[in-house]
Amino acid sequence: MAVEVKDTRFDEFLEFPCAFNFKVVGLAHDDLVPQVIATLQRHAEANDYSPSVKPSSKGTYHSVTVVVTVTSKAHIELLYTELGKLELVRYVM
């Protein structure tokens, strides 16, 4: 699944570095949270990741919210792209 991040305007609204919320919606699978955290650890400085997880009403999907310290617009876009490449992930917001 190809992930395309369009040109964003994050740099117009944020001062870097800053805390940024990523919400990842993926299949309800035991590997979803570990994969999300592993991806963030590869591309972001050491953060104390404390994800919150909410199941969908039918239990098919999980929403994982994680706060990450980002350093630039390009850093945010990289994280969106890399998270979107995970097989279990359906959306990154």
Please give a structural write-up:
- This protein has helices at 10-13, 32-43, 73-84, and strands at residues 18-27, 52-55, 61-70, 89-92.
- The chain has 93 residues and is of the alpha+beta class.
- Strands 2-3-1-4 form a 4-stranded antiparallel beta sheet, covered by helices on one side.
- Helix 2 runs antiparallel to helix 3 (73-84).
- It starts with 9 loop residues before the first helix and ends with a strand.
- The model has no long low-confidence stretch (mean pLDDT 90).
Task: Summarize the topology.
Blueprint lengths: L9 H4 L4 E10 L4 H12 L8 E4 L5 E10 L2 H12 L4 E4 L1
Helix pairs in contact: 2-3
Keywords:
93 residues; alpha+beta; 4-stranded antiparallel sheet; globular
Short account of what is shown:
This protein is of the alpha+beta class. It has helices at residues 10-13, 32-43, 73-84; strands at residues 18-27, 52-55, 61-70, 89-92.
- Rg estimate, integer Å: 13 Å
DSSP strand count: 4
The succession of helices and strands, N to C, reads HEHEEHE
Shape: globular
* Amount of beta strand: 25-35%
Quaternary status: single chain
The description of the largest β-sheet is:
4 strands, antiparallel
Estimated helix fraction: 25-40%
Structural class: alpha+beta
Mean pLDDT: 90
Q: Indicate the low-confidence ranges by residue numbers.
A: none
Rounded to the nearest angstrom, the distance between the terminal CA atoms is: 16 Å
Biggest sheet: strand arrangement: 2-3-1-4
Number of helices: 3
